[in-house]
Amino acid sequence: MAGPTAMRLSSVLALLRPALPLILGLSLGCSLSLLRVSWIQGEGEDPCVVAVGEPGGPQSLDSGTQLDQSDEDFKPRIVPYYRDPNKPYKKVLRTRYIQTELGSRERLLVAVLTSRATLSTLAVAVNRTVAHHFPRLLYFTGQRGARTPAGMQVVSHGDERPAWLMSETLRHLHTHFGADYDWFFVMQDDTYVQAPRLAALAGHLSINQDLYLGRTEEFIGAGEQARYCHGGFGYLLSRSLLLRLWPHLDGCRGDILSARPDEWLGRCLIDSLGIGCVSQHQGQQYRSFELAKNRDPEEEESSAFLSAFAVHPVSEGTLMYRLHKRFSALELERAYREIEQLQVLGWDYFTEQHTFSCADGAPKCPLQGASRADVSDAVETALEQLNRRYQPRLRFQKQRLLNGYRRFDPARGMEYTLDLLLEAVTQRGHRRALARRVSLLRPLSRVEILPMPYVTEATRVQLVLPLLVAEAAAAPAFLEAFAAGVLEPREHALLTLLLVYGPREGGRGAPDPFLGVKAAVAELERRYPGTRLAWLAVRAEAPSQVRLLDVVSKKHPVDTLFFLTTVWTRPGPEVLNRCRMNAISGWQAFFPVHFQEFSPALAPQRSPQGPPGAGPDPPSLPGADPARGAPAGGRFDRQASAEGCFYNADYLAARARLAGELAGQEEEEALEGLEVVDVFLRFSGLHLFRAVEPGLVQKFSVRDCSPRLSEELYHRCRLSNLEGLGGRAQLAMALFEQEQANST
After folding, report:
1. β-strand pairing of 280-281 with 284-285
2. For residues 309 and 198, is the Cβ–Cβ distance under 8 A?
3. Among 705, 589, 574, which Cα is nearest to 651's?
4. Mind giving me the DSSP string for 461-520?
5. Measured between alpha carbons, how far is 554 from 516 in angstroms, rounded to an integer?
6. What is the pLDDT of residue 106?
7. Strand 493-501, strand 534-539: pairing
8. Is 367 in contact with 355 (CB distance < 8 Å)?
9. Residue 402: C-alpha distances to residues 349, 408, 478 (Å)
């Protein structure tokens, strides 16, 4: 009996022997866990609970002594929501506007101090000229029970003493609007304010500083540091300053005696807060103009008047309107200049029979061909969409096209605005004529997401400048611009000058036409140690852009990124970065369209910018020089394509394909009429990206159109020179002045 039992036991042990370490480990782990739980339960209250729950508990805990070292055993204490049934339930109200809940404030509030005599005259003139420019415009008067003119919000204090009126005005602003506005502008009703400039000034100033800004005046008998802001020209008070001033208003009203409210406020700010009036802050200057008696605003041409925020004194309402007319005309002129400078897309007017934007410049021409088919399709599409929307209740039939407008947006497509005279027919057969305006868009194409290879802005750019003898005089200016835009910011770029000599130029005994260029290169290398500006001399009777680039291409590795420039190009960091991003090896070549200024002889000159704070300046032209008068217009020269960014490997591949397709004499003749952009366009499979580049700005210059160029290149060169003379308005004015001179 013992034998079989022992054998079975040994067989069981043999089966369990591989699992014995696992069983022993589980048993030991369970035992230690039970022992640890008993130790923890014997320690008493949790110190975290005592610290949080008891009022007298400690406020800070030492993690090394009071908290357990294991984060796994931490259990959060969940406090359930409890509402006391003995207290009335209050519904939580959300604000109507998210601006209120976020604590956002309006920018500017304008307070106008007026009186019994001027409330119905000057105050009304102020309201009609500037009220529509500001979010809130309030009028404060000491007259009790004053009759309020229509459309004006008047606050009556009941006391016309100057100090009392100013004190109560500031108290009212603090109490009712202190939490809603960042800036408070206080003015008198005999002041004309250029509202857009004042709003722009407030938008440029930081709201977190105590600021008292206006036209500074000295107190009588006080030191130079004690200044107040003249109330006749208005002054800005920041919200933070108003909050600090409010507790001192009662004390100032009892201690300071003054017949002028602006002087009283200045004394109060200096005595209580030590803050005086300033006329300039953060680069913004408050400019004002004192109008002489009986002075006509139409005849005033001084820069102080033209750039003023406020004009004082204004003796009557008609003078206020004349000032507003003058400044509005100035704003309109500036807006027209901006429209012309920025080349805003214009609308072309047409009817069913005629268009009023003709290719030859004629004011009116027949609508025919593809344009007529395009307009007919737009009208039919509009009618179809209207019927689809309103059927079966209404059915529309076109009677005629009243007005039509269209424009081409390169980013979207062709836009249409049509005024249609329609006949609406109801289900019961009733008919009625209706005039409706519809807007349509004919998109360019379907939007697709194209995969693009990875590019980086760390690539070194090799600038190549072909320089003819006729362009040598302009080379020093290019080199100075290169130093300022590339060498100073330490851009990762190099420059190679290709000096092109004629057959009889630069020979033995003849003066070197590029001697000044070489001296300027040596000077730059001396000014910027470590800089190496290479130059190559070639001789060509009829220089071709492709032949010249062949010379440079052979001297650089195939992975070189070329930036082909002209002597009028002004490279900079932004232009170089866009060159790196838009030129993709094996994928894309980039040929930017530069901006060229109009001829200064035809384009009006812009006066130099005034000092900071002299009103918001219009957007500058690309490359406009604010330090001097610069032409007020220009255009993107689509006819010129001398600038380009591409990789040497892509150029060599296109050049080899050109040599394979055109051999011998045919190739030589083709090179005469080809530019580098034509080589990529005709003999490479790359994407050719051509886009406007606002960073490439060229001064006005007349290009030398060589008769050796091909007919197409010569025509493009001549057309570029003609289009660069001036815009349509400048050319028309020049012709008008010439006719006037001839007639006299």
Report:
1. antiparallel
2. yes
3. 589
4. EEEEEEE-GGGGGGHHHHHHHHIIIIITTT-SEEEEEEEEE-TTSS-TTS--TTHHHHHH
5. 27
6. 83
7. parallel
8. yes
9. 11, 21, 55
CB 198 within 8 A of CB 327: no
For residue 466 the two structure tokens come to 């072909």
By percentage, how much of the chain surpasses pLDDT 70? Answer: 81
CA distance 521 to 567: 14
Total residue count of the chain as it appears in this document: 744
- Please give the helix or strand (H or E) that residue 683 lies within, else none: helix 676-683
Q: What is the pLDDT of residue 93?
A: 58
Q: How far apart are the first and last CA of the chain?
A: 148
Q: Please state, as a whole number, how many other Cβ atoms lie within 10 Å of the Cβ of residue 303.
A: 14
CB 322 within 8 A of CB 298: yes
Radius of gyration of the chain (CA): 40
User: For 17-161, where are the alpha helices, taking DSSP H only?
Assistant: 20-41, 47-53, 98-102, 122-130
Where does residue 123 fall: left (phi above 0), alpha (psi -120 to 50 degrees), or beta otherwise?
A: alpha
Q: What pLDDT was estimated at residue 320?
A: 93
Helix residue ranges, H only, 343-442: 369-390
pLDDT tens-digit readout, 568-604: 888 888 899 889 888 998 889 999 998 888 888 776 5
What gap in Å lies between CA 14 and CA 6, rounded to an integer? 12
Whether omega before 313 lies within 30 degrees of 0, making that bond cis, reads: yes
Q: Is 634 helix (H, G, I), strand (E, B) or coil?
A: strand
Which pLDDT score is estimated for 422?
92
* Identity of residue 115: S
Residue type at 659 in one-letter notation: A
Nearest Cα residue to 167 out of 270, 247, 230: 247
Dump pLDDT digits (tens) for 256-273. 888 889 999 999 999 899
Task: Give the list of residues 6+ apart from residue 62 with CB closer than 8 angstroms, or none.
Answer: none
Inter-residue contact 213 to 235 (CB < 8 Å): yes
pLDDT band for 630, please (50, 70, 90 cuts): very low
**Six-digit token pair at 583?**
């030129």
Helix pair angle (648-661, 665-672), 10° resolution: 130
Give the angle subtended at the CA of 526 by the CAs of 524 and 528, to the nearest 5°. 65
Q: Alpha helix (H) ranges present in 256-306?
A: 261-273, 303-306
Identify the helix (H) or strand (E) that includes residue 4: helix 2-16
Nearest to 265 by CA among 285, 280, 245: 245
- Taking the C-alpha atoms of residue 425 and residue 432, their distance in angstroms, rounded to an integer, is 7
Q: What tens digit of pLDDT does each residue of 672-701 get?
A: 768 888 889 888 889 899 888 888 888 887
Strand partners, 398: 422
